[in-house]
Amino acid sequence: MKLLGNNSISATISWILFFLFLLFAFHFIYEMFGYGISYYNLKTGNKILYNTFYVGNTIDWGNTTATGNTYFRFKYPFSDQQMVTGVFSLEMFLNQLLQFSFYTLFFFSAFKIFNGMSQEILFNQNVIQWLKRFSLLNIIFVPLSVLNWLYNFKSHFSLDILLIIFIHFLLGIMVYFIVEFFKKGMDLQHQADLTI
Questions:
Q1: Pairing state of beta strands 64-75 and 82-87?
Q2: Rounded to whole angstroms, how far apart are CA atoms 139 and 154?
């Protein structure tokens, strides 16, 4: 099986990335909806969808019950499966907002790149634009992650967070260089088309 073009590995990867995009987009929208419902319930004392989007002063974590903060627990729709739980705070909301919005855009951009590479003409303007967006997305994620880390985890030094930040920065820089190769390839392709 060929790597690029129609009926290639890149076409298969593009559909896998599209599925991941849909999964993250659903999770992101559903979680933001849950935060909205929970905030409304907390402020008004209502219990709309309370079994799915719980918010209260106590929560059960295995063998222990936590009290003293405002906690939340979201379950997946039509199931008893827990999706996310924690302290209901602005910091948690901003952290989840940053992470899931970034990875939703990350997988969508990757899908568009691989979908463009599964076309017959590999060096095209559409792929170059999505490579630029993907590079910029990864580079912008770095300072946002640093700010998120400083705001949410003030006293906790985490090597994992620094590694993720470094990987996305490196990925953004590498893809930016790949954009230049694609531009050169598109120029050579245009010159070849003119000579034919």
A1: antiparallel
A2: 22
CB contact burial 40-56 (16+ within 10 A = b; e otherwise): ebeeeeeeebeebbbbe
Question: Rounded CA gap, 28 and 98, in Å?
Answer: 10
Query: Helix H segments across 85-158?
Result: 90-117, 125-152
Contacts 24+ apart (CB under 8 A), 187-190: 188/123, 189/121, 189/123
Query: What is the model's pTM?
Result: 0.83
CA-to-CA separations, 184 to 3, 47, 115, 116, in angstroms, rounded: 20, 59, 20, 17
Q: In DSSP terms, which residues pair with 56 in a beta bridge?
A: 71
Helix (H) / strand (E) containing 74: strand 64-75
CB 156 within 8 A of CB 52: no
The bridge status of strand 53-61 relative to strand 82-87 is unpaired
Measured distance CA(110)–CA(19) in Å, rounded: 11
- CA distance readout (Å), 79 to 19, 35, 151, 174: 21, 18, 34, 42
Separation between Cα atoms, residue 2 and residue 117, nearest integer Å: 12
Which tens digit of pLDDT belongs to each residue from 86-138? 888 888 888 889 999 999 999 999 999 988 888 777 777 888 899 999 999 99
Q: Encoding tokens for residue 143?
A: 């300072």
Tokens of 177: 């260089």
For β-strands 53-61 and 64-75, DSSP reports them as antiparallel
